[in-house]
Amino acid sequence: MHNVGMSVVQPADVDPAAVDFAVVGTWMDEQGLPAGEFENVTALGGGTQNIMLHFRRGAREYVLRRGPKHLRSKSNEVIRREARLLTALGGADVRAPRVIAACPDESVLGAVFYLMEPVDGFNPQNDLPDLYAGDPEVRRRMGLSAVEAIARLGALDYQALGLSDYGKPEGFLERQVPRWLGELESYSMNEGYPGPDIPGVELVGEWLDRNRPAQWTPGILHGDCHLANMLFSYDSPQVAAMVDWEMSTIGDPLLDLGWQIATRPEPGTVSAALLGALGQVGGLPTPEEMVAHYGQYSERDLDAVPWYTVLACFKLGIVVEGTHARAFAGKASKQVGDFLHAVTLELFERARRLME
Q: How far apart are CA 114 and CA 258, in angstroms?
């Protein structure tokens, strides 16, 4: 029995069905964390529907992360994996949030959750401070820091970190095309979706299978490392932390490099709007600069980077087409669905150019 008679005031704007602070408080006490009232509770935005709350308790700052209020089938497992990975990365030279404590047992709060240290940084999708907005050289260094972050991640010894069973690297590249074509086919389950109108899907898939690298070295893959899934320092163009690790696994880390190149915002394109002001001003490093910079932190053979960039276009294009399909069934906004379909078309056009 802990803190008999202790009362916890539930913040007015936090649904107790999602995060019951009386439960969280008792659990934190059991972990030996500082006791006290919950103060300055603030909801944090992000690229997903996962719940993130910043708060202060016992003179320490925390961020709580759990799945959405209405859990999806894999929400708990996703957060459980995230917590495991970030805990393993805690002592590594990599830009990632630091886990303070994790609760993998969903019966405690009704969902798996973990507490991490807050990150002092901004998301370029939502904000572009004057330092960055006014100087293209700062934005170039910002992009190079993002490349360094994924290169350092991919260079880690995942087995030494206890992550040997975090993914299934054997056959990883061979699985990619059938895996994502199968995902695209599954969208037909959305009522009203006429099927994918994406020129070049089969062509790109066949090219990827024909030109697949024969040799590669497994490592930790973030899986969705575009700039909107990174926080940057306010006072220098450095990655403060890579966030949203939902697609992380053990695979081929060069896909992260291809992903960054594929999602590099080019002013005047539809997809540039995904990064707000940053997508309009340019100044980021060229793909050639990105590859060269990656090579400073990695011993991997970078000759096949164009292949990984095509794969990134293929995979991400299919992922975002899912929202377009769901919009036909009324499960997503038509405006958002149409916009993301345009992004898909752009990604496949970029893939076809790279194949020439």
A: 30
